[in-house]
Amino acid sequence: MSALPPLSLYLHFPWCVSKCPYCDFNSHALRGDLPEQRYVAALVADLAAQVARLDDERPLTSIFMGGGTPSLFTPASIASLLDATRSLLPFMADIEITLEANPGTIERGRFEGYRQAGVNRVSLGAQSFDSEQLRRLGRIHSPDETRRAAEELHAAGLANFNIDLMFALPGQSPEAAERDVAAALALAPQHLSHYQLTLEPGTVFAAEPPPDLPTEDSAIEALQRCQQRLSAAGFERYEVSAYAQDGARCQHNLNYWAFGDYLGVGAGAHGKLSWIDAGESLQIERTTAWREPRRYLAEQPAVLARTRVAAAQRPFEFMLNGLRLTDGFTIDQFERRSGLGWERVAAAIDRLAAQGLVEIDRRAAAAATRIRPGERGLAFLNTALLEFLPESSSTTIT
């Protein structure tokens, strides 16, 4: 059996100043004081307990601090957390360490502090540069605060930053969506995430949809305009919603999409781990922590729900990620990461190729054959995934 996949770490910070009406992440409006030191201690205890269960010594290739709003936490707390992490797990020499930041929560000088703490990449949640759109989205920052945050990132030596943008917003024209992209590019990021607004179940927008959402044709035109603007600026689309300059692809997200492994630490955090059993077979397990922050803090080390990913479910889980990437994946990657033979999906891939939903780049060495989604496959990803829906569910470990 070949080597296990790379290992990453996700650290979840569940609090925000307020809950946005479109957000379905595990985030909670902050009530009262932030339990900063207590939560950092809980993260460290959670991580230590998970590390104690590992039976291999893979170094961390990336760390992603997401939320919620991690930038509510001080640089001193982030430094303490990263120092504790380094004492528990080895770091790759070129480890990528990302912090999500809300432009409305950044105090002057904090980015310099985060850089000194070990952060070397930032993801800035701009969403739009239109003040009215930000108000309707429930965002607490202004376009000028995003611009000031970008200036501080450059001044702090954190030029490797992402800007999150949304399109197909209520009442937004394709021209307005393109103006948002132009405003983001003016801040000289190295990466841009560009998502269409979707009405996720359980959100305020799902219960009460905005009345003036763009039509499908308008959303498609907006996407095409924005893609052209990004391409002209030297940003390559490498995933459904991700664009990067050369050398600036998000390594943490790439590990997710390539069916790599990651520890999930924090309230509501999800993890995925692979190991080789005594019979030399690859086993895969997913973990989930308590979502509610008070319960998470009350039960340390965190109690994790552990679910074994059955062989029947792995093709869908792999393709859910692999078919998001413009580069796709190779047969060898599928077999090593899923633990399955290519024959499990070969017929389905051939059917998708016949429909123009994937492209098969055949090589002399069969294992190096590469499968890519192509433009049509990216546009109709959900249709392609129907080919891999499992007949049986995962097994929950008791």
CATH superfamily of the largest domain: Aldolase class I
Task: Quote the beta fraction.
Answer: 15-25%
Spatial ordering of strands, largest sheet = 9-10-8-7-6-5-4-1-11
CATH class category of the largest domain? Alpha Beta
Largest sheet: 9 strands, mixed
What's the architecture of the largest domain, going by CATH? Alpha-Beta Barrel
Q: Based on CA inertia axes, which overall geometry fits?
A: globular
CA radius of gyration is 21 Å
Number of separate strands: 18
Detail the poorly predicted runs: 393-398
Amino-to-carboxy terminus distance: 27 Å
Instruction: Determine the fraction of residues in helical runs and give it as a percent range.
Output: 25-40%
What's the pLDDT, averaged over the residues? 93
Q: Number of domains in the coordinates? A: 2
Instruction: Tell me the CATH topology of the largest domain.
Output: TIM Barrel
Number of helices: 15
**Content-based structural category:** alpha/beta
Can you describe what's shown?
This protein has 398 residues and is an alpha/beta fold. The protein folds into two domains: 7-255, Aldolase class I (TIM Barrel, Alpha-Beta Barrel); 315-390, Arc Repressor Mutant, subunit A (Orthogonal Bundle), CATH 1.10.10. It contains 15 helices and 18 strands. The protein has helices spanning 36-53, 75-88, 110-117, 131-136, 143-155, 174-185, 204-207, 216-232, 251-257, 293-298, 314-322, 331-338, 346-354, 374-379, 381-385; strands at residues 7-13, 15-16, 28-29, 60-67, 91-101, 121-127, 161-167, 191-196, 236-239, 242-244, 261-265, 270-276, 282-288, 305-308, 329-330, 359-361, 370-372, 395-397. The protein has a nine-stranded mixed beta sheet, with helices on both faces. Strands 12-13-14-18 form a four-stranded antiparallel beta sheet, with no helix packed on it. Strands 15-17-16 form a three-stranded antiparallel beta sheet. A hairpin with a 5-residue loop joins β12 (270-276) and β13. α1 runs parallel beside α2 (75-88). The longest helix is centred in the first third of the chain and has 18 residues, at 36-53. The protein starts with 6 loop residues before the first strand and ends with a strand.
